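Hi team,

Filling in the usual template for the complex we talked about on Friday. All components are listed, including any nucleic acid strands or ligand strings, so the model treats them as one assembly.

SUBMITTER: L.P.
PURPOSE: interface mapping
COMPONENTS: two
RESIDUES: 904
SEQUENCES:
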Amino acid sequence: MTSTTTSPVTPGSGRPSTALLTDKYELTMIQAALADGTADRPCVFEVFARRLPAGRRYGVVGGTGRLLERLADFRFDDEEIDALADSLDERTADWLRAFRFTGDVDGYPEGELFFPGSPVLSIRGGFAECVVLETLVLSVLNHDSAIASAAARMNWAADGRPIIEMGSRRTHEEAAVAAARVAYLTGFDATSNVEATRRHGVPSAGTSAHSFTLLHTGPDGPDEAAAFRSQVRALGVGTTLLVDTYDITAGVETAIEVAGPELGGVRIDSGDLGVLARQVRDQLDSLGAYNTRIVVSGDLDEYAIAALRAEPVDVYGVGTKLVTGSGAPTAGMVYKLVEVDGIPVAKRSAHKESLPGAKRAIRLHRRTGTAVEEVLLPFSAEAPEENGLEKRELVIPLIRGGEIVSGLPTLEESRAHHSSVMVSLPWEGLALSEGDPAIPVRVVPPEALPGA
Amino acid sequence: MTSTTTSPVTPGSGRPSTALLTDKYELTMIQAALADGTADRPCVFEVFARRLPAGRRYGVVGGTGRLLERLADFRFDDEEIDALADSLDERTADWLRAFRFTGDVDGYPEGELFFPGSPVLSIRGGFAECVVLETLVLSVLNHDSAIASAAARMNWAADGRPIIEMGSRRTHEEAAVAAARVAYLTGFDATSNVEATRRHGVPSAGTSAHSFTLLHTGPDGPDEAAAFRSQVRALGVGTTLLVDTYDITAGVETAIEVAGPELGGVRIDSGDLGVLARQVRDQLDSLGAYNTRIVVSGDLDEYAIAALRAEPVDVYGVGTKLVTGSGAPTAGMVYKLVEVDGIPVAKRSAHKESLPGAKRAIRLHRRTGTAVEEVLLPFSAEAPEENGLEKRELVIPLIRGGEIVSGLPTLEESRAHHSSVMVSLPWEGLALSEGDPAIPVRVVPPEALPGA
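RESULT (copied from the run log):
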């Protein structure tokens, strides 16, 4: 969860340092910059995505809260310095040992939408203290935002029906925890991942796998009823029984025989889920189990979820496609130097241009709440008046003088914020089909502002 | 690196516990199994992929060594038990507190190839002690094998030219370390990730980013030469200068002016890399910099690498596509109960069949070394004679009675093993184009064996 108390970004948490989760070139650049006297030049770096993944109409910022926690553990202790001893000179080692981020960070609050060029995070400080954070910042935001962006589409497709995140086994074990966190951020109801519950307070869910049914096999063959009886005895009649280990119709019959019509739910994890959901609903109703919920799982993505909208499905379980970003496993964000000593700078090579100068962003909304445009302004400029449109500031302060700002949104607050911004999108921007970004992004150059 | 000393799988390393990197249903199943007396039934679980990702012809086992390290930290201390207190009964909490894996694990050595159905890992022990490891086992193997499988194709495409892994910023910060490790396993030369060097001994690489060139901007504009001078002074003339911040031709000229014709390398990170590599090679040669290497990077995947084979490229830098598995971010491995108390078991639902019974695997090779077939046998069966073909056992013991077997392959040894198995594939199995698995997998049922 996002920290709500003021705390130094660096050091002393007792947790393992995150400082080596870093590309080597950051350290070699610092070495060169220390030697040539440029290490402390005031700089602004900006994190943004040049484009959205193919066909996507919006992205969702995920990971900001988690990033602040990881930055709080970014320090070079003796262990880290020793590991780097071969590749760095003494001066650089000393600088790293004394490192403590002293600058400012601003960014979009977690759960906010982003579009091509949106300045999702701005980092201001000396060159060296900013560049050293590059990899960690990008790793967290690229991963978490990719998952959040896919999750938001799944939530939209589910149209109010609950989704349980169950993808831990399909991704790196630590990425799984982060994925569960941002799935919850975008509206998922629960996760199977126990660590996500401990670490981030995400509600947990989980009952049983096919192996539990298969475990109840004896010399006389399978005994599905024994498995169901055991589960109901241990977890109560409100549990969800997995009915597709052998024959689904027989499984449902056995489930209700064992648990009675007050059984909480049945889960179907294979086959044509739409057809099966209808059959199982009819069967459950015919057995008087009108309130027994149907949980479906098995390689669901946003399209499969949407295709099941007309079927009697009560809960979706989503795994692989969630944790792999449903075809877009990384958000494509970059960390670019945009200003040095007040001078706007930018790379000029082909297809990798960035917009020079530190920026902030506002979103324009109609009185009805519908978003119509995102506007990027020079960081310190007043937003120009926009006829009849409401202006909403998108960037909030996250770190000031190296201290995490107090009162930042909690995960629950970010979840509520995400929900509110999703309803502000024009309806065509929410479609799952391929298309342009849901709203255009307009860049206001300094010379276009009043008084320029 | 893979542990080479005998050590208990559970507890007491001093490192944080990995036990909550687990799906909740494993714990609820244990609760039910403890209550009904089935928790200690002897079981065999098997890890395998039902199919390869679309179009892929082989998979590479990655993560086994890392998994054994993570299993060594799998224990339920007070902290973990407290976190679970709300959802588990006293008996289950006691069982978890006392948990220590006592069973056996066998598997394919890291770097080995796998095909649909290959029993990549077998876990034998009581039901509860085996099922509790399910999520962690799958998370590590699915992630690391997905990256290893993509990396192997990239190495093949590079045809002997070195590749540097630089994808940390595009994936979860911990997944990045694991990705760098398996990229090295499959033949990559180095990584940008500093933690992968510390933790796994992967050689490191990295010089500078565009921000370093942009940093050298003053009131009079950009000063690329100053940036290059600074880098050469700090890192020596063998360094690699990034020449595409402004104009590549001017950048190359400046680089050789500053560093002289003994400059180690130049890097191009944007544009049409093939065309640019030829132009830059000509320019370098005309400046007498015959030995200055050309490093190319920028969204390279195995196809782009192969397309550059005819160009004067000396080193590839690969990021995004490596860490996201180049279109296949997870290996699709599952963890299935295949035997209970000596009785073969299997789920029977549509499209998710598994082969009942514990298995091991051999690969048949021609005398020339070319692999022709993989054969799955009942775990304890003798392999039948195969006319004129050499048999190679694929499965090695990893854990015995809860202790990690001593003398397991190190990462360097696994890297050499991988290299040797790649050359055993029939040449058409190595193609990047879509196709069937490189070799067929044949299942020998118990009744087909001599003496059955």
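MY TAKE: Residues 191 and 208 of chain B are 14 Å apart (CA to CA). Chain B has two domains: 7-147+328-443, 159-324.

Thanks, L.
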